[in-house]
């Protein structure tokens, strides 16, 4: 944030713009930001209460050279994970060559035996990825977590940009900021490229758990901006190994499903028999090559935090390259030597469940009580494979506007990548999450975090960006019944989804 006692150049110009405004004007713009998000439904759920997602009026700024390294590193990581997943559910050479022990994969809670032998039509399993990065005290970005199941949060990237371009238009005349508007069409192109063989004009849909899901705003936004239908499981049916969509005009074939439903709820024939969120027969249709499910079922094994520890080796193995972005140092508690060291240092390390997300289950040693540490010790010793340990990462800080003053706050970054097989494209910017409480290191919304618009500066030859276009209201398929309130199945699905959300934070923030 600062060079010596002065803000770095990009922030110096930004703060200069802010100081030219009166305190009352800045406060009014901040209030307008938050109320606008609540009105638009850009919210998250806390104990059943919808709250506006906090957004800071000050963007995070990433300079061109720094972004170039992030871009290369994210592309590299996605390419390696793509190869790994194809290998895991195929030949298994990564096991026979001793790069990753087979048990590391087969004991993962996200490993899907139903996916073994299922080949993606165009060889892509990771159509969308969100790679969580942190910048340490040394200024280097490192990967904290991989998200290649159903990564969420890109809607905040797009809405944050539109909101900040309205709230602080002066700043866009002084900075050459790369746009983020290309994401929906990039995603649509990747999904269309993944169509089953012989389908030249595929019908793409977005599958959502429904309006009660915490990320429904994002599902609706992506469907609308891609110009495709937003469907629930009850809108689909499988006939003779093919997926059909119910419409007021009859059944329509579906070729590509961008699903935002977890594996275990996707197909009650193969996974949870009580699921009301998916559609019976989806797995068989995918196995027959008649529909593409994006991201692929079983991708979660690459999200496992134990598998994460092997990703630098996977990059070397599959790509014959050195990692551009390193990992955070990590201890594997399933290994006796690592476990013994960590047990002696519980009070100074961060322990994480390998299948956790959204900050849930994390124990920060320096902040834990002796009783909490003893309880943690017992849980680890009972199931050591399910835990990793990492040092406390001193996240970098950026200027943040809080209660009329500017103060440094810790941030992380989730860049989003889209893979259409021909290339991995990284959205220039990504989601910056900020810990709004002083000294807080966990940036998730469940811990009081917020977000920032993320500016990637363009080269000197680019023209300054002024404002980005807004989007119209949601576009959905015509209902075939009395709506959620009239359908007991929908109410059951709502309860099922809410119970699932309590176990897994559906928000990236």
What does this structure look like?
The chain has 509 residues and is α+β, with helices and mostly antiparallel strands. The chain has one domain (31-328, 393-456). Helix content is 32%, strand content 23%. It has 16 helices and 25 strands. Strands 5-25-24-21-20 form a 5-stranded mixed sheet. β8 (204-207), α9 (216-226) and β9 form a beta-alpha-beta unit. α3 packs across α13 (311-319). The protein is globular. It starts with a strand and ends in a 6-residue tail after the last helix. Mean pLDDT is 89; it is low at 1-5 and 469-486. It comes from Nocardioides pocheonensis. This is Circularly permuted type 2 ATP-grasp protein.
Main attributes?
single chain, 25 strands, ATP-dep_Glu-Cys_Ligase-2, five-stranded mixed β-sheet, 509 residues
Secondary structure layout:
Elements: E1 2-3, E2 6-7, H1 9-19, H2 23-40, E3 43-46, E4 49-52, E5 55-62, H3 64-88, H4 93-96, H5 102-106, E6 128-135, E7 141-147, H6 154-167, H7 169-174, H8 183-193, E8 204-207, H9 216-226, E9 229-231, E10 236-239, E11 242-247, E12 250-253, E13 256-259, H10 263-266, H11 282-287, E14 292-294, H12 305-308, H13 311-319, E15 326-327, E16 331-332, H14 336-343, E17 349-353, E18 363-364, H15 370-382, E19 387-391, E20 397-402, E21 405-414, E22 416-419, E23 424-426, E24 431-435, E25 449-456, H16 488-503
Computed Rg: 23 Å
> SS-based structural class?
alpha+beta
Main sheet characteristics: 5 strands, mixed
Mean pLDDT: 89
Low-pLDDT residue intervals, each spanning 5 or more residues: 1-5, 469-486
How much β-strand is present in the residues?
15-25%
Shape: globular
Q: How many domains make up the coordinates? A: 1
Number of E strands: 25
Portion in helices: 25-40%
Pfam family, one: CP_ATPgrasp_2
InterPro entries: ATP-dep_Glu-Cys_Ligase-2, CP_ATPgrasp_2, UCP005522
Protein name: Circularly permuted type 2 ATP-grasp protein
Organism: Nocardioides pocheonensis
């Amino acid at each position: 944030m600062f060079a010596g006692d002065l803000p770095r150049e990009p922030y110096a110009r930004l703060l200069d713009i802010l100081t030219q405004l009166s305190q009352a004007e800045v406060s009014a713009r901040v209030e307008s930001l938050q109320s606008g998000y609540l009105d638009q439904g850009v919210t998250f759920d806390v104990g059943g209460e919808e709250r506006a997602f906090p957004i800071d009026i000050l963007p995070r700024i990433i300079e061109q050279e720094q972004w170039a390294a992030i871009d290369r590193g994210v592309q590299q990581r996605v390419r390696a994970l793509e190869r790994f997943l194809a290998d895991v559910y195929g030949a298994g050479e990564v096991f026979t060559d001793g790069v990753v022990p087979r048990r590391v994969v087969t004991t993962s809670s996200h490993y899907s035996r139903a996916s073994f032998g299922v080949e993606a039509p165009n060889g892509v399993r990771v159509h969308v990825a969100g790679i969580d990065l942190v910048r340490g005290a040394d200024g280097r970005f490192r990967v904290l977590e991989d998200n290649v199941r159903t990564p969420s949060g890109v809607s905040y990237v797009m809405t944050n940009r539109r909101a900040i371009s309205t709230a602080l238009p002066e700043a866009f005349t002084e900075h050459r900021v790369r746009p983020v508007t290309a994401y929906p069409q990039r995603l649509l192109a990747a999904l269309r490229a993944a169509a089953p063989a012989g389908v030249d004009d595929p019908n793409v849909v977005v599958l959502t758990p429904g309006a009660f899901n915490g990320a429904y705003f994002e599902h609706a936004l992506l469907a609308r901006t891609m110009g495709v239908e937003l469907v629930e499981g009850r809108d689909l049916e499988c006939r003779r190994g093919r997926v059909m969509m119910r419409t007021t005009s009859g059944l329509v074939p579906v070729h590509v499903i961008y699903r935002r439903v977890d594996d275990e709820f996707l197909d009650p024939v193969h996974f949870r028999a009580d699921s009301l969120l998916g559609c019976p027969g989806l797995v068989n249709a995918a196995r027959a090559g008649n529909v593409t499910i994006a991201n692929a079922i079983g991708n979660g094994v690459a999200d496992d935090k134990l598998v994460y520890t092997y990703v630098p080796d996977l990059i070397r193995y599959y790509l014959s390259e050195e990692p551009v972005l390193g990992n955070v140092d990590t201890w594997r508690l399933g290994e006796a030597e690592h476990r013994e060291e960590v047990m002696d240092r519980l009070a100074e390390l961060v322990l994480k469940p390998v299948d956790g997300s959204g900050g849930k289950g994390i124990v920060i040693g320096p902040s834990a009580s002796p009783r909490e540490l003893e309880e943690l010790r017992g849980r680890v010793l009972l199931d050591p494979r399910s835990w990793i340990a990492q040092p406390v990462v001193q996240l970098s800080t950026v200027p943040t506007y809080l209660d009329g003053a500017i103060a440094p706050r810790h941030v992380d970054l989730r860049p989003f990548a889209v893979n259409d097989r021909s290339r991995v494209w990284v959205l220039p910017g990504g989601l910056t999450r900020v810990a709004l409480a002083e000294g807080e290191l966990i940036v998730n919304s469940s811990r009081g975090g917020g977000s920032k618009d993320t500016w990637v500066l363009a080269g000197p030859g680019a023209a300054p960006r002024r404002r980005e276009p807004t989007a119209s209201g949601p576009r959905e398929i015509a209902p075939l019944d009395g709506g959620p309130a009239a359908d007991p199945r929908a109410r059951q699905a709502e309860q099922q989804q809410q119970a699932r959300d309590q176990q897994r934070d559906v928000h990236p923030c």
